Amino acid sequence: MSHSLNLRVYYEDTDLAGIVYYANYLKFIERGRSEWLRDLGVDQVDMKETEGRVFAVRRIEADYLRPARFDDVLQVVTSLHQLTAARVVVDQAVRCDGDTLFTARVTIACLDRTGRPVRLPPAVGSRLRQVQT
What we know:
Belongs to the 4-hydroxybenzoyl-CoA thioesterase family. This is Tol-pal system-associated acyl-CoA thioesterase. Keywords: Hydrolase. It is elongated and about 45 Å long. The protein has one domain (2-129): Roll (Thiol Ester Dehydrase, Chain A). By secondary structure, it is α+β, with helices and mostly antiparallel strands. The chain has helices spanning 24-39, 44-51, 122-129; strands at 2-8, 54-64, 73-83, 87-96, 99-111. The N and C termini lie close together (8 Å). The chain contains 3 helices and 5 strands; from the N terminus they run βααββββα.
């Protein structure tokens, strides 16, 4: 099961050439992951407050395929690739009018208050296993 988030490219997202600045794709996919988790019922604020656990990006492998431009409507697609006891790996793509512009595989670690890797909270793991393919 994949999740989709639509967003528009604003002037502030572009560089001097009028295309989306490369680092902004990372912001777009962050929004996609956050909304994906929210739609799965994972409340990251509650997870931090009650479990003392947070998610942190550990690794990103990204490919920039085609440029997005001012006023484009983008679709950020997120799907679960792999789930372990303490790590979530997602595949993400940014598309425009059916064309894939950017792809990434993102590894997210679950950390405790000291920044050490820990297991996912049981409820979070359970929700993520529901979408595992």
